[in-house]
């Protein structure tokens, strides 16, 4: 009869470390998570922390978190449903972690009482986390000033424009600044919750929470792989014709002079207009279009990586792989595995 292979040399150290973290949490008492329910809250964003933290169980069977839902109103609209809110804003005084879900209209001003409660919580040292476009609420409260933060990739430019002191990174799933945390769009809220559980209770408890959620504890790649780059829907009176031209000619070996000729502009003027209207150089825009075209082929065809590289305008397969990894944050093969039906 065969015997089971012995554990690796670090197994016992990691096992004792996880037990020690749980033991410390036992003595400190259960963590209290307050999920903020604002008017027009995104129901998915609110449900994610409620379910993820609410189902955490420690090795002895006790719950790891007490989860409360609080807000300025007794009832809030959440898209097609209305939700009853059981706690008022003073619940934030008892929180170890405050989670701020996104709202369907993230540009809608938040109630002053909510902003004051969030500032007070942060001043006390309470951890404050946002999910998806909940980052706009944290930014409105001034909690992200001069910090690195993330949000849904579709809203990242708006956040950076409205709050220029924030270093907005749309490529990651979440950012942990210690007491202030932000997650990227939608399902990234689950990644953030699992990260918090791992921080509070260690890998074993977090892994159990991930299994309950039927999700990986750590996802490969970041939000970068979900971004549709340099989409042809950008509307600009000056550049729109050349952007449309690039869409159908990106597979060619293009130069800056080719783009300028297509736009009927000088290379200097073209470069200046691209910087103003897209925040990129003309050739950076071309590279982004090529990456998007490659993503579409990876999702919808069985073409080899070599063929895709050649068909989308990259000079060599190795150049394509390197640029794809840099921009998307994962390899072409891993991207295809994730997104190909």
Automatic annotation (TrEMBL):
Q: In this protein, which residues make up the domain named HTH araC/xylS-type?
A: 240-338
**Top-level taxon in the UniProt lineage:** Bacteria
Pfam families assigned to the protein according to its UniProt record, in alphabetical order: DJ-1_PfpI, HTH_18
- Which controlled-vocabulary keywords does the entry list? DNA-binding, Transcription, Transcription regulation
> Which stretches are transmembrane?
none
Key word Aminoacyl-tRNA synthetase present: no
InterPro entries, A to Z: Class_I_gatase-like, DJ-1/PfpI, Homeodomain-like_sf, HTH_AraC, HTH_AraC-typ_CS, INH-QAR
Q: Which SUPFAM superfamilies match?
A: Class I glutamine amidotransferase-like (SSF52317), Homeodomain-like (SSF46689)
Residues in a coiled coil are none
Q: Spell out the protein name for this chain.
A: AraC family transcriptional regulator
Q: Which organism is it from?
A: Salinispora arenicola
Q: According to the entry, what is the taxonomic lineage of the organism? A: Bacteria, Bacillati, Actinomycetota, Actinomycetes, Micromonosporales
């Amino acid at each position: 009869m065969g015997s089971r292979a012995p554990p690796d040399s670090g197994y016992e150290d990691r096992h004792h470390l996880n037990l020690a973290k749980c033991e410390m949490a036992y003595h400190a008492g259960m963590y209290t998570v307050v999920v903020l329910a604002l008017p027009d809250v995104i129901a998915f964003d609110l449900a994610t922390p409620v379910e993820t933290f609410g189902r955490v169980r420690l090795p002895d069977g006790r719950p790891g978190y007490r989860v409360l839902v609080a807000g300025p109103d007794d009832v809030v609209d959440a898209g097609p449903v209305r939700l009853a809110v059981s706690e008022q804003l003073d619940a934030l005084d008892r929180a170890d972690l405050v989670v701020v879900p996104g709202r369907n209209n993230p540009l809608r001003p938040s109630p002053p009482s909510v902003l004051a409660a969030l500032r007070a919580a942060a001043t006390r040292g309470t951890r404050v986390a946002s999910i998806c476009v909940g980052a706009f609420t944290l930014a409105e409260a001034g909690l992200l000033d001069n910090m690195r933060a993330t949000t849904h990739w579709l809203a990242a430019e708006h956040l950076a424009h409205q709050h220029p002191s924030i270093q907005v990174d749309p490529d990651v799933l979440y950012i942990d600044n210690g007491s202030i945390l932000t997650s990227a769009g939608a399902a990234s809220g689950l990644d953030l919750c699992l990260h918090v559980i791992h921080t509070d209770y260690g890998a074993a408890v977090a892994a159990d929470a991930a299994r309950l959620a039927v999700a990986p504890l750590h996802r490969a790649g970041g939000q970068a792989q979900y971004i549709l780059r340099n989409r042809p829907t950008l509307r600009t009176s000056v550049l729109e014709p050349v952007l449309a031209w690039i869409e159908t000619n990106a597979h060619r070996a293009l130069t800056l002079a080719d783009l300028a000729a297509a736009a009927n502009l000088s290379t200097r003027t073209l470069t200046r207009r691209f910087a103003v209207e897209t925040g990129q150089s003309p050739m950076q825009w071309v590279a982004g279009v090529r990456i998007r075209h490659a993503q579409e082929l990876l999702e919808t065809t069985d073409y080899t990586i070599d063929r895709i590289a050649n068909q989308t305008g990259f000079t060599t397969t190795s150049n394509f792989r390197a640029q794809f990894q840099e921009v998307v944050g994962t390899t072409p093969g891993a991207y295809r595995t994730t997104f190909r039906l």
